[in-house]
Every structure is written in structure tokens, then in C-alpha cells.
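Raw record, unedited: Alkylated DNA repair dioxygenase AlkB
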Amino acid sequence: MIDLFTHYGTNLLPYDGEVRYFGPILAQANDYLARLLADIPWQHDQVFVQGQLRNTRRKVAWFGDHSFAYTYSGVAHHALPWTPVLNELKTIVQGVGKASFNSCLLNLYADGSEAMSWHSDNEASLGVNTTIASLSLGAERRFLFRHKKTRETVEVFLEQGSLLVMKGETQTHWLHSLPVTAKINKPRVNLTFRTFLYVGE
């Protein structure tokens, strides 16, 4: 396992992609976290498991420039209009990440028992070689990358208020996950800013 979490701004991946970790970028991360926990209309995510629709423990919300639908795990999610705080965070993230985004998928993990299994964000609606900026608020959590062929693993610790940007061929060649961390008893909100290609139904 390669551990590169201290190399702010450098490419964490050894090949076949680009992941840059910028560390904490927000001066008022605690305030942003409190506002998001209070104001976002959180709902349990839904996924199909063995043909059955099930609720996840993790909660989500989906926002964007238009009321388009984003489908993953077999379920369509309809974007809500940006809130003022999300617009503020989008402007900050775009400035640091040097990219523009038209949507944001938010995940709320109540504690370390809530996790995300191995996956790639490679839906057709996001295009090829897409850029995704991941902003973390709340509890610090481990985040892992695993190459699809070589199975080489890269680990990074996502700090409060930190930004991680995935771009290039990352989604084609690498999986990523948020593993269970039993000792974490505080919430984490993850905002993944994306560029959605298809507007409308």
C-alpha cells in the first residue's frame, strides 16, 4: 500500500490517472458543516441489491444547475436548485481545483460504521476522463484507491475541510472506497462536485 497523504497538491496515483489532494482549504469548515447538516434535505440513498430496491444507511442529496436526473446503482436522482451555501462552496472548489462544475452529489455518513464500497464514478452521464472534486467536512476518514488490474492500493486521509480532485483516466483504471472506521463517532459530509453532460430527462 502506498501512503501519500502528506503530499499536498501532488498526484497520488503512480500511473493511469490523476488524483490531487490539496488538504484543508476552508477557514470556516465547522460553520459550513453545521449549515449543511441543518439545511440540506437529506434522504436515505436507494440501491438495487439482487433485484430489490433497498435504502442505505448513508443519506444523500443532489443539486445542480438544472433539474436533471442522475442515475447510479439503477436509481434516478433529480437535482435540486443550488442553495447559497452550496454556491459559496462551489466557487471555492472551482478556484482551487481549476475546473468548473454544474452539479454536486452530497453524502452524509453519520459515523464510521457508514461506508462506501469499491466503485468508480464512470457513468455515461459524466463523460470520459471526467473531473470530480471531493470536499470533506466533519470527521477525518480513510479513503482508498485500488487499480482495477494491478490491484495496487493508495491511501489518503481526508481531513476536515479538505479537497481531493480526481481527473484524467482515474475512473477508467481505479476503484475507490470509504472503508468502515469503527472508532469514528462523528458525522462526515462529502460533497462531490461534478460536470453532468445531459440536461433534462
